[in-house]
Amino acid sequence: MAGFKVAIDGPAGSGKSTISKMIAKELGMTHVDTGAMYRAVTLLAIERRINLNDESQYDFLETIQISYHDDQIYVDNRIVEDDIRSKEVTENVSLVSSFPYVRKKMVDIQKNLSTSGDIIMDGRDIGTVVIPNADLKIFLVADVVERAKRRQLEKHKKGFKVDLEKLVEEITTRDHKDSSRAESPLRKADDAIIVDTTNLTVNQSVKKIIELIQSAKGAINE
Ligand code: CDP
Q1: Half-sphere exposure of 153 (CA within 13 A, CB side)
Q2: What number does the ligand 1 atom closest to the CA of 38 have?
Q3: Measured distance CA(37)–CA(116) in Å, rounded
Q4: In terms of DSSP H, where are the helices of 70-201?
Q5: CB-ligand 1 contact for 142 (6 Å cutoff)
Q6: How far is residue 50's CA from residue 15's CA, in Å, rounded to a whole number?
Q7: pLDDT in tens, 174-194
Q8: Confidence tier at 132 by pLDDT (50, 70, 90)
Q9: Closest among 188, 38, 205, 209 to 126, alpha carbons compared
Q10: Which of 18, 178, 181 to mutate to test the pocket of ligand 1 (most atoms within 8 A of CB)?
Q11: Is residue 133 within 8 Å of 6, Cβ to Cβ?
Q12: Residues in CB range of 30: below 8 A, 6 or more apart
């Protein structure tokens, strides 16, 4: 059996990764955070001091290996989880992920990962491009101020103080760039189910999506 595939897409800070990780743990699925991959490319591009606007300079991707296993992102053998969440990476990731060359490289890795076992993959183009035949597609949304508040709390827990208005602005800008790019923009797949988490806790969101997974599985087995 090919395994059960869940695609979770949605705008910045809608809770995709947190929720997907918890669902994966509860149901024994493999979770893949594709945003972490684009963040890793951005981190490397910054570290290598390439011209971020020049698509041809991303050819370093031919010689390094970006991989994702055990819910962890690796660049060759280096774990980059903390470094990829920096402000500088966040500010540049939408630009980096707009290049067709970068996307092709990442989508190839993601398609490969999606072929084995039960997978829950989150990102912007999972239901539209990476796993168009997913068994269940979710489009996770939440009000932008609520998303900014969640980001603020996350940063606060890590000891950083960030202005709420600045976060609203950063998230709005990123959403705009992600939705308006020519290559695989953030878009709800026609057959995706919208889940609005504005008034839901993380646990309630997890519960709701698990119910959707169970009912999609039930429909397959009928
Ligand atoms: O900050 P948040 O967790 O919401 O974003 P992320 O999932 O870490 O993704 C970071 C950025 O990577 C997005 O803003 C997109 O520009 C890009 N991305 C993408 O283009 N395609 C994906 N499948 C996943 C992320």
Answers
A1: 8
A2: 12
A3: 19
A4: 87-96, 100-113, 144-157, 164-180
A5: no
A6: 31
A7: 999 999 999 999 999 999 999
A8: very high
A9: 188
A10: 178
A11: no
A12: 24, 113, 116, 117, 118, 119, 120
Domains and CATH numbers, the chain: 5-211 (3.40.50.300)
pTM of the model: 0.93
Which of 29, 9, 38, 24 has the alpha carbon at shortest distance from 179? 9
Cβ of 150 below 6 Å from ligand 1: no
Tell which one of 39, 97, 121, 197 to mutate to probe ligand 1, the residue whose CB is within 8 A of the most ligand atoms: 97
Would you state the structure tokens that stand for residue 80, as one six-digit string? 């980059």
What count of other Cβ atoms lies within 10 Å of the Cβ of residue 164? 12
What are 10-31's pLDDT values in tens digits? 999 899 999 999 999 999 999 9
Q: Tokens 């890590």 belong to which residue?
A: 158
